[in-house]
Specification:
- The chain has 201 residues and is an alpha+beta fold.
- The chain is 53% helix and 12% strand.
- A three-stranded antiparallel β-sheet has the order 1-3-2.
- Pfam families: DUF3793.
Amino acid sequence: MSQEIFEIVKQMNLDNLEVQIALQCAPLISGLRFSNLFNVNNEQADYLISLMNEMHISWKILFRGKEKLTMLLYKKDILENYFSDIRVKNILKNSGYEKNIVDEEDISGLIDTFADRYCCYMQTKKYFPHEMGLFLGYPVEDVEGYLKNNGENSLYTGYWKVYEDVAAKSSLFKRFEKAKEQIIWFLAQGVSIKNLENIAL
């Protein structure tokens, strides 16, 4: 983050929902990613849902804690296309997802199963759902690399652990950071987050 944007963030109300969306989900809002985890205070959940509905971003509550919710925010059509990849399907099948759910075109069954697994992990701290990278739209080769190496031996770590094509992923992570800076700058000018969807970078 540049010093200029850092100074802007220091002056912002970090409890403001749109500021948190910018900090946590800028690549999703800008169109560089098609899914994202988002943690939100329980009392702000309804406002978040209304914003996401206005922006045509789908959502699923993964876990509800005493004070916060963890949600999966995603662009349904793009995520469905990603899940049509045979390598993605194979990872899900090998991770214990039912074959008939994996082979359906509608991904709601997959997301429901993932939500159950994530919730179980948050409650017990056992059996982390390592297939989560798929639901976050990570490149399948990096998810494969992560699973094969038990999370070790990555070539680079940014928004996720990279196992192939470091130069391209490093460049993409820089674009993610640029998206965050641009969205924060626009918010500081009074522009609503819902008017920044798919902002040109």
